[in-house]
Amino acid sequence: MRVIVKIILSHEVLEKSQFPQFQKEIERLIESGGKILMLDFSNIAFLKNAELMAVVAIVKLVRDSECILLISAMSEQVRMLFELTRLEQIFQCLPLTSDLAEPLAGLRSVAS
Predict the structure, then answer these.
(1) What is the pLDDT of residue 36?
(2) CATH at 62
(3) Where in the sequence is the domain holding 47, given as residue range(s)?
(4) Closest CA to 69 of 105, 50, 87, 93
(5) What is the dihedral of CA 60, 97, 74, 108, to 10 degrees?
């Protein structure tokens, strides 16, 4: 059985001062059985450079595990930034109104 962990991002957890603690929490979630991590960007309208680097660090952390990384509720500005940096190629982006009750078949892991 896959365990889905929804992580609601905020600018605060992506800041340099708080990110190490947030990163440890993600590691703990993975170790405790989280197999599908969904980053919810609903509270993020834009990303500063340091925040983008924090998101990349999350990708690297998840890549080293056997987890699937999903993105949900991405604003248009964040989506454009991901397209410009080609990060959209490594994420599975869900529409704003996705229904997680549906099977998550066909999702690729960032570990592959």
Answers:
(1) 87
(2) 3.30.750.24
(3) 3-93
(4) 93
(5) 20
